Amino acid sequence: MFYLGGFLGIITLALWIFAIVDVITTDEGSCRNLPKFGWLILVLLFPLVGSIVWFVAGRPQTSGRVRRGAYERETSRFPEYDRPGRFAAGSPDDDEEFLRRCRERAEEQRRKGREGDGV
User: Which of 4, 26, 50, 65 could be cross-linked to 43 through a Cys-Cys bond (beta carbons 3.0 to 4.6 Å apart)?
Assistant: First the structure.
């Protein structure tokens, strides 16, 4: 009976460590039912029960996700170009600041190129 208790203790410890790492590495917005900090406290204070509850009720659901290729990224809820409150010019000609920075960068590159040819 001693070996069975030791084995279950090792399984519980492994589950607990895996749950802690999983809570820490999960994105704040992906946690279900509690904030990330709440899940971390629950798993730390109640190792076996907290870990099981995390996997059942707190971990982000992965069903329906498509496996991505090596160079594909997951898009966030608000992609950069679609973020609320962000100004986006309709065409590049409408964004004078952008065009000014492009001209300055081009001039700087031309100047460096001329200096490099003369050396």
Answer: 50
